[in-house]
From TrEMBL:
Pfam families: CHAD (PF05235). It comes from the Bacteria. Residues 1-270 form the CHAD domain. It comes from Methylomonas paludis. Transmembrane segments: none annotated. InterPro entries: CHAD_dom (IPR007899), CHAD_dom_sf (IPR038186). This is CHAD domain-containing protein.
Length: 270
């Protein structure tokens, strides 16, 4: 069992590296909203596996590799946010004419950020990242992981998510974003260790994804509200303010009704 677990985890690391490399190549050719999303997702999956492997093998350090990947995420954030806002505003501007100047500003931002992102992606040292992944693979290959250690790793991530859940304040949107970050880590970890999960825990994965989608919609709403407030510095037009305040409140109301689902996502008492 331990050798089997270790081998499959390392195979998963290799799979995440391959997906990351493909996503990076795709983004070099086309920084579309979908391509950027796929690259960010690939980076997060790779980071989650690095975190798991270093938790199971404390001597197998991956700090430099993790920092490299996190820097890439940070550099993609502005473009991702702009593209998500463009999708929303592009649809809504047909009924709220006051949004058209903001839409034009977003389009200009996207053009600038696309150029910056393409230039940045060309500088990403994919060969260096590959070598570091191989080095980590070699360090972990000789060590064993067992099912108990895997479940304890999930307990730790889930415990952090519960702490952030208990700190959620619907009037403080950053508290929901903090919960979202923890829930992403939980989802990626559960996806990676699916072969060793009881069936009832596997069944929770779609529900966790839906939970994250709702939290993501709230975060997107917060980012959009901040951008609108900054752009209309003399005050948001009444129609725009009313529309997006109602949209955000509806999302928050839904989350407050559904938030307790978190207690079904993993064992509360190991």
């Amino acid at each position: 069992m331990p050798i089997h677990i270790s081998r499959l985890l390392l195979d998963t690391l290799d799979e995440h590296w391959r997906r990351y490399r493909i996503s990076l190549i795709d983004c070099r050719h086309d920084c579309s909203e979908n391509a950027v999303h796929e690259l960010r997702f690939a980076i997060r999956r790779l980071l989650a596996m690095l975190a798991l492997l270093t938790t199971l093998n404390p001597k197998a350090r991956a700090g430099k590799l993790q920092r490299l990947l996190k820097t890439q995420l940070d550099c993609l954030n502005a473009l991702r946010d702009t593209q998500v806002m463009l999708l929303e505003i592009g649809n809504t501007a047909t009924t709220l004419a006051e949004l058209k100047p903001f839409l034009q500003d977003l389009q200009a931002q996207e053009s600038r950020l696309l150029a910056e992102t393409r230039a940045f992606i060309k500088t990403i040292p994919s060969g260096k990242i590959k070598r570091k992944c191989k080095k980590l693979h070699s360090r972990c290959k000789a060590r064993r992981a067992d099912k108990t250690a895997l479940l304890e790793a999930v307990d730790k991530v889930y415990g952090t998510a519960l702490q952030r859940y208990l700190a959620v304040d619907p009037h403080q949107l950053p508290s929901l974003h903090h919960l979202r970050i923890s829930m992403k880590k939980l989802r990626y970890l559960l996806l990676d260790i699916q072969p060793w999960l009881p069936d009832q825990d596997k069944d929770q994965l779609p529900a966790i994804k839906d939970y994250l989608t709702l939290l993501g919609d709230i975060q997107n709403s917060a980012v959009l509200t901040a951008a609108l407030t900054s752009f209309y510095h003399d005050g948001l037009p009444t129609a725009i303010a009313a529309y997006y305040q109602a949209q955000q409140q509806a999302l928050l109301d839904r989350f407050m009704l559904e938030k307790v689902q978190i207690y079904d996502f993993w064992r509360v008492n190991p």
